[in-house]
TrEMBL record:
This is SDR family oxidoreductase. One of its GO terms (molecular function) is oxidoreductase activity. It is an enzyme of class 1 (oxidoreductase). Residues 9-185 form the Ketoreductase domain. The keyword Oxidoreductase applies. It comes from the Bacteria. Keywords: Oxidoreductase. InterPro entries: KR_dom, NAD(P)-bd_dom_sf, SDR_fam. SMART domains: PKS_KR. Pfam families: adh_short. Belongs to the short-chain dehydrogenases/reductases (SDR) family. Its EC number is 1.-.-.-.
Length: 251
């Protein structure tokens, strides 16, 4: 069980059981932050937390507004404060074009990537509005700027995250609430294997290409930079990619 230390700043991370969420949680714990690790699977969250004294593991499905309200209530009751949210939970969805996208698959991706992000951002905003401010960090992905081929559901929801980030930044001004978006491309993580980057990812010209990746820790360090930035500084968007990866125009 985490130690309730209200002198330490606190961040809540969704999708904290793996990938960027897990790496970011461990980075911020090493820097002395209270970290709430949230996700659907307790075992993976506990493995990510490594029994750290300032880590709090809480399970929740971000697609459920009720579960998200309970998540934030438990987190703030335990640590007594919430300074930042890393809105990280997401799913890639099927590798299809719009004519092949089944309505059930669209609904699933939209519920996680968009509704889930809004549920968490809303609860963070409510708390921060009443407690002097804070920072919401949304994981946009470079697909928020340029889609991969056959990624329509993911690309559309991630483009919507840009609108969410800008809306929070605008509406949060009177309350000392900042919003940042981090767009990450090709970390060496499980999702890259799902995309087939190690065997060859589909390119805009129809070819397959093994794309470069970069260390997950570098992405975690970038999120930590945002989380550690004072509220006198607004970092609207940060893009970090593997050097040389197809991005602008997607090749």
């Amino acid at each position: 069980m985490a130690t309730a230390n209200t002198s330490r700043s606190t961040i809540l991370i969704t999708g904290a059981g793996s990938g960027i969420g897990k790496a970011t949680a461990r980075t911020l714990l090493s820097q002395g932050r209270n970290v709430v690790l949230a996700g659907r699977t307790e075992d993976t969250l506990r493995q990510a937390a490594q029994d750290h004294e300032h880590a709090l593991v809480l399970t929740a499905d971000v697609t459920s507004a009720g579960q998200v309200r309970e998540l934030f209530a438990k987190a703030t009751a335990h640590f007594g404060r919430l300074d930042a949210l890393f809105n990280n939970a997401g799913t890639f969805g099927p590798a299809v074009s719009i004519d092949e996208l089944h309505e059930d698959d669209w609904d699933k991706v939209c519920r996680v990537n968009l509704t889930g992000a809004i549920n968490c951002a809303r609860e963070a905003f409510i708390y921060m509005k009443d407690h002097g401010g804070g920072r919401v960090i949304n994981n946009g992905s470079i697909s928020a700027q340029a889609p991969r081929p056959r990624s329509v559901a993911y690309a559309v929801t991630k483009h919507a995250i840009t609108g969410l980030t800008k809306s929070i930044e605008l509406d949060g001004r009177p309350f000392n609430i900042c919003a940042s978006q981090i767009d990450i491309g090709n970390t060496a993580s499980d999702i890259m294997n799902e995309l087939g980057t190690s065997q060859g990812a589909l390119q805009a010209d129809g070819s397959l290409k093994v794309e470069p990746t970069f260390a997950l820790q570098q992405a975690a360090d970038a999120v930590a930079f945002l989380a550690n930035s004072p509220l006198t500084v607004s970092v609207n968007q940060l893009t970090i990619t593997a050097a040389g990866m197809p991005f602008i125009g997607r090749g």
